[in-house]
Amino acid sequence: MARRRILSLAAFVLALGLGAAAGRAEIRVVEPDPPASLPAFTLADHKGQPFTAERYKGHWSLTAIGFTACPDVCPFVLSNIVEVINQMTLRVRPDNLPQVVFVGVDPGRDAPVMADYVAHFDPNFVGVTGNHEELAKLVKGIDGFYRIGKPKKDGDYEVQHSASVIVTGPDGRVHAKLSPPLDPGEVAEYLARKQIAYARAQRNN
After folding, report:
1. Of the candidates 45, 61, 168, the residue with the CA atom closest to the CA atom of residue 118
2. CB-based burial of residue 108 (10 Å sphere; 0-12 exposed, 13-18 middle, 19+ buried)?
3. How far apart are CA 142 and CA 65, in angstroms?
């Protein structure tokens, strides 16, 4: 079974041998050790194109789970990610900015509005959804959860979901699980150094 490491940013920077002064605040992060592979799944993005585990390969990604009718948590997390990406533009080349994926777990309501929803936060964000069988595969694969409640008399229903932000690497594996709120500068620094460490390890292999 994979071991899980809980690190602070300061500890991560020290592990790279870059000095304690570079890390100030702690961030809440769990790192599967070794990085966890994703299962096979088939969803569709907000442009109607297939979205499978292959779409995670070749670049870094940040993935959040939610639903478009979410009144508070999802808008907060996605806005928080926007701030992180803005900070990353100061640290990495544009082609090294992570792909941001929003997984809509309420497909009946999410699919018709997904394109407009993700574009509200950033036109580069990717919104994905699909049937619950396929959604469950991805959500479980990134150590998340969601639950659709029973409809009330008025037809409305509750949607519960995890709020973590999942970090996947160019190898298509889960490298970290971040717990909001995310300090934009500190998380951007963590992700930038994560990229450096990964590239260094690839060169040494």
Report:
1. 45
2. exposed
3. 10
